[in-house]
């Protein structure tokens, strides 16, 4: 079984169980951008809210951003902070947009003990939105795989 197939099956089980960890706002109150739940619901669509605010996970291979090949920047869908440059994107075979390095001072991490295993959660450093997780199985030069939910990101192509 390939890593992508295995991860897709794992994500399907996790999604069907609807297991969630703590909301993004519980990670810390040091974020620059604060909104009430009502305000977040007005800013985000239901899928974005489920991922960014409730720590959900989109189904694998559901985001068009996984196939995005243009030169540009990936921004937080919650606050428009630039998070990743397309030069650091790679095809991880998992079905989620993956990067080997975030932009400087763009993301923060925290321990995620949800779904019976410890992982490292990645969230936006400005609004605290849940983006995905980082793993130690990425390519050089960092060896990291920032596995992001495409619904938590917006792609902005660079002008030619």
Describe the structure in brief.
By secondary structure, the protein is of the alpha+beta class.
Q: Any idea what the radius of gyration is? A: 15 Å
Report the helical percentage. 10-25%
CATH level-two architecture? Beta Complex
User: What would the average pLDDT be, to the nearest integer?
Assistant: 85
The CATH class assignment is Mainly Beta
Task: Give the overall shape, derived from the CA principal axes.
Answer: globular
CATH topology: Metal Binding Protein, Guanine Nucleotide Exchange Factor, Chain A
Q: Measure the end-to-end span.
A: 41 Å
Write out the strand line-up for the largest beta sheet, numbering strands in chain order. 3-4-8-7-6-5
State the total count of DSSP E strands. Answer: 9
Largest sheet: 6 strands, antiparallel
Domains counted in the coordinates: how many? Answer: 1
CATH superfamily: Peptide methionine sulfoxide reductase
Q: Please state roughly what percent of the residues sit in beta strands, choosing from under 5%, 5-15%, 15-25%, 25-35%, 35-45% or over 45%.
A: 25-35%
Poorly predicted spans: 1-28
Query: How large is the count of helical segments?
Result: 3
